[in-house]
Amino acid sequence: MHTRSVDSPPRPEHRTAAGSAGVLALCSALLLTLVAVRWSPLITTDGDISGTTHRWAVDEPGLTQAFRVLTDWVWDPWTMRLLCAAVVVWLVVRLAARWTAVWLALAVTLGTLLQQALKAAVDRPRPVWPDPVDSAHYSAYPSGHAMSATVVCGLLLWLLHRHGVSRAVWRTALIVAVVSVIGVGLTRVWLGVHWPSDVLGGWLLGAMVVALAVWVHQRRHP
């Protein structure tokens, strides 16, 4: 790990996190507006992509079943929350980092509340198919699976980086996180339960929550 000189001023990392959160908030607001007003090019693109992937899902039942297992068990929001809960316990028991444990739990909880509030406010219908390969409840926008995976994986990656884990552990965690975040979004579209813009919205909002949470943590523990 690189150790900063005692005489060197601290880097304004919290400004980077705040700036990232601002950009992500603007992007999220723009996409939310386009979805709410049903902007024609977006709706057309969503329909074209979803129609194509649904045909593939019907034609490839084996792959579709594998994606159902991944999205319903491995990358399910409750799986992500249980992973977060395990890390919270580890922070308290092994590191005595109570403030960080509370911060992590609150960040994931607030991300879930934001997701549910937007679903209720936008009330976007999910795709409807004559031959569905899967089903889902509640409104479509944003994708809860994509947002939950982004929030949990993003926060846990940042904690690993902050604690200075070995390069091998960091690379493994990064690969698992990237595959999980991208993979869960693709499976939701493949299974025909989300429009592509639902997944994009979940990714943007999840990244925004991560950036805001990191900014809060850095201001408290620079």
UniProtKB/TrEMBL annotation:
Domain named Phosphatidic acid phosphatase type 2/haloperoxidase: residues: 100-214
Keywords tagged on the record: Membrane, Transmembrane, Transmembrane helix
Chain segments annotated as transmembrane: 21-39, 78-96, 101-118, 138-160, 172-193, 199-216
UniProt-listed CDD domains: PAP2_like_2
Keyword Glycosyltransferase among UniProt keywords: no
Keyword Manganese annotated: no
InterPro entries in UniProt: PAP2/HPO, PAP2/HPO_sf
Protein name, entry field: Phosphatase PAP2 family protein
Lineage of producing organism: Bacteria, Bacillati, Actinomycetota, Actinomycetes, Kitasatosporales
